[in-house]
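Problem 12. The chain below contains 115 residues. Write out its predicted structure in token notation.
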Amino acid sequence: MLQKTIHWFKAVDDVNNIHWQENSMCVIEVNDTKITLALNKQSIHAFAYKCPHAGGIMSEGFIDAMGNAVCPVHQYRFNLKTGRNSTGEDFLKTYLVEIRDSALYVGFEEKNWKF
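Solution.
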């Protein structure tokens, strides 16, 4: 049986102080890991800093009309919630996000097999 454990880390003290780029994305460091944040329809999403396909910096891409994060290198499109690529070839690592008392927390999943 696969048991998931989530480790939560405070990423931003106040979500109102996030410095969004013009493309509604930014890069932050959480738990010694660079990640990308995206603001889409008043929801904050967190995902990998680099595209799994070609290593493009995701924050240099954009969010398309369908709400996908688009890589700046080859325009691969990834679902903000699941990380699934529109062609099903690659997955973008996504992270859980919670807002608690205006602070933004990012969840890192630890997977362990339990018997």
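Discussion. The chain has one domain: 2-106. Students who got a different answer should revisit the alignment rule from Section 12.3.
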